[in-house]
Each structure stands twice: as structure tokens, then as C-alpha cells.
Amino acid sequence: GQNIDQPTEMTATEGAIVQINCTYQTSGFNGLFWYQQHAGEAPTFLSYNVLDGLEEKGRFSSFLSRSKGYSYLLLKELQMKDSASYLCAVRDGDYKLSFGAGTTVTVRA
Amino acid sequence: IAGITQAPTSQILAAGRSMTLRCTQDMRHNAMYWYRQDLGLGLRLIHYSNTAGTTGKGEVPDGYSVSRANTADFPLTLASAVPSQTSVYFCASSDSGGAYEQFFGPGTRLTVL
Questions:
Q1: CB of B74 closer than 8 Å to CB of B23
Q2: CA distance B52 to B44
Q3: Which residues of B touch A86 (CB under 8 A)?
Q4: Contacts of residue B92, Cβ cutoff 8 Å, sequence gap at least 6
Q5: Closest Cα to residue B74, out of B110, B23, B108, B26?
Q6: Quick check: B9 and B109 in contact, CB under 8 A?
Q7: What residues of B are in contact with residue A42 (Cβ under 8 Å)?
Q8: Burial class (CB in 10 A: 0-12, 13-18, 19+), B22
Q9: Chain B residue with minimal CA distance to A104?
Q10: Residue A1 pLDDT level (bands cut at 50, 70, 90)
């Protein structure tokens, strides 16, 4: 099984940077995903890491260290529309995802 | 249809009644999934199907059943609903047996009284 931990809540100011950490303990690892979920909506895909290192996609970056069981999602130049929950998910060898409980990010003006 | 759809959007159900949540995708994805999302617990996998004609149990399968008669449809059935099944249910699909990211439907909010 998977044990995935991420902070419950984070607050940041518009224009700032926020880093959401995710640690995991897994019986099989085949990639790590980050999803964004606005209140009352479906999760949408943000990023994917399977090898160690940093993946950058515009204002969002995701980092993975497989040896440490650790990932983070970095949100730069925060905008009000970035207020949402961010879900860390680990994929196992059977291509099934296990999700963390999510981190609610609130962006203040 | 564009993407993945779910029906109904929301439902209030009396305990003991049966209910089928519908999920349809037009992306020709071979893998499909059902999750429930509860406050503080995140998304938990109920059942999945890697390809039409096959299904498997996820983390929380008790009280639920699924079928996969074709590529597009993946209905979830609650045979005899209980209040603990009150939740938001999301259907998702993925290409290549789950090798790529999962796309989620808009969800069904189910309340069992």
C-alpha cells in the first residue's frame, strides 16, 4: 500500500511563491502526479515525475527524489485563481493511483 | 460528448435503496476508475478496469460493484446504500492501461439518508 503525507493548508500572498511538500512510503513506485482541484470541481492534471529531478511547466514546477520518497510542487507568481486544493498521487506498478488528502492553498490579495 | 461525463450530478437516496452512477468517456481510453472523495481523506479508489471486459477491486470496494461491457461505459452500482456511502464520486479514465495521466469526470454528489 501507499502512505502519502502533505500539509493540510497553506496561505500565501498574490505574486509570491509557495512550495507544497509531499512525502510517501510505497510498496511499489511507478511515478508521482500532482493534480489541482478547485472547490466543487474535478481534479485536473498538473505534472508528472517518474525520474529524479525538476520538471518545469510555466509557473508550476515539480520535483522528485525517489530515494527520499519526497516530492514538492512549486507555484510561482501566485494568482488568485491558484486558490485550490493540490493533490499528490503516487502510481504503483499496476498503474493505480493512491492520493494524499490534499493541500488547500489560499491566495490572499 | 467531449471527454468524460457522469450522471446524475447529485442524488439523495434512502438507505437500503439501490443506485447506479453512470460514467461515459469518448476518448477511447482503455482504463477507467471510480473514486470516492471524503473530507480529510482524499480520493480513494473503489474499483477499476484496465480494459473492457475486466474489472478489479481498489482500496474501498465493499458495498459497490462495477461492470465494463464496452470501452466507453463504466457504471458503479450500490446494491443497498448505507449512510457511510455519502460522498462525492468521481469517475476517471486513462490511456494505455493507466500509463498516462487520468482525466476526471465532473463528479456525482450522493447523499444517503
A1: yes
A2: 22
A3: none
A4: B4, B32, B33, B34, B35, B102, B103, B104, B105
A5: B23
A6: yes
A7: 90, 104-107
A8: middle
A9: B40
A10: low
Report the pLDDT value the prediction gives residue B97, as an integer from 0 to 100.
67
In this structure, what C-alpha cell is assigned to residue A40?
A: 466543487
By CA distance, what is B102's nearest residue in A? A45
Contact A103, A23 (CB under 8 A): no
The verdict on a CB contact (< 8 Å) between B44 and A99 is yes
* pLDDT tens track for B55-105: 999 999 999 999 999 999 999 999 999 999 999 999 999 987 667 899 999
Task: Tell me the pLDDT tens digit for each residue of A52-102.
Answer: 999 999 999 999 999 999 999 999 999 999 999 999 999 988 889 999 999
pLDDT in tens, A15-47: 999 999 999 998 889 999 999 999 999 999 999
CB B112 within 8 A of CB B85: yes
Amino acid at B42: G
Å between B105 CA and nearest CA of chain A: 6
Type of residue numbered A34: W
> In this structure, what DSSP letter does residue B99 have?
T
Buried/exposed code over B23-59 (b: 16+ C-beta within 10 A; e: otherwise): bbbeeebbbbbbbbbeeeebbbbbbbbbeeeebeebb
